[in-house]
Amino acid sequence: MIYNYPQNIYFHWGESKNTGEHATELGGRRALIVTDKGVRQVGLLDDICTSLDAAKIAYTVFDGVQPNPTDLNVADGLNLYHSEGCDIVIAVGGGSPMDAAKGIILMTKHPGIIKEYFTGEPNRRPITGAVPPFMAVPTTSGTGSEVSRGGIISDTQENRKRVISSKHLLPKTVILDPSLTETMPPQLTAYTGLDALSHNVEAIAVDAYAPICDAFAKTGIELIHRSLFKAYSDGSDRGARRDMMYASSLGAMAFQKGLGVVHSLAHQLSPQIGVPHGAACGIMLPYAIRYNLQAESTIPKYSEVAQQLGAAPGGQRAMAYQAPQLVERLLEQLGVPKTLKDWNVTEEDIEIMAKNAMLDHCHPRNPRPCTEEAMTRFYRDAQ
Prior knowledge:
The chain is α/β, with parallel strands linked by helices. The chain folds into 2 domains: 8-181, 3-Layer(aba) Sandwich (Rossmann fold), CATH 3.40.50; 186-381, Up-down Bundle (Dehydroquinate synthase-like, alpha domain). 49% of the residues lie in helices and 11% in strands. It has a 6-stranded parallel sheet with strand order 1-8-5-4-2-3, with helices on both faces. The protein has a two-stranded antiparallel ribbon with strand order 6-7.
């Protein structure tokens, strides 16, 4: 097991006001800020841009990233990076700007097109250290992409999510500033929190010896149990916002161990149906846990998950079987639909998504093997 994490992680309320100082440390002189229109409109860039001005760092804002970033978004951002003579990339936002920024830094100095670097692509080109300095400033608490070596990019030709992954795509500097999440509305808080929960739970269930990842995941689940509903109910609760930002990053550091079938299923629901990624993960998680519980090796793992989620005391097996019910109870508390019928999923959609789910990179690490028939059953059971 090889662990790869960013060189510098700054965690402090209001730390984003020091973005210019940190960019200077990386030698940046002209920054491309990769974000989306929502982040820009609510003013989350204001203090960051003021900090860059104070540090005499010029910047250009690329806010064309879609909720599920595409290869076309990467191309647009890349063109702006070159036309403006940028030498550093700063991603500000949720997982989408982070992932798009990883695609942009990759293609600044690598030949060919981004499709040639997707995981699983025949004759995949190698990803090297030929990338510009990269900083990440998350404004949500869900994907943990700021500490992840991978990025999810939608292939517009195949209409499915693909992956770029390398230690070279990790940000050099990460700024974790919980104050940036204060204005997240309740629904977005719920969806991003469920994404973080699924990362931590799936990482624990993966069959691999990685105690560092397991320690991260257990702590992440505990923090989510303690603070997700609080953050959802009262966005101004600083302690809850702090806990959720920690839990998000811990989840991504944990899933270097691997993810599972939840993400293979969720990765299809977003491009095919438009279900927000976190909601998709939350909906599919109980079904995946019940499926995986049939593998005996998962019993002690899901028992720990249930314990962190506040299960009633009992034997190991009894505790483990409470895990899916506890996730469903959390969905109810957060007002998230527990089935796919609310998203108008059709049988035709299921057939397409089941095939694509088998092509996804996550399920091979699932503790119980999956078939196309199993993928179809997951979707139908969740209807």
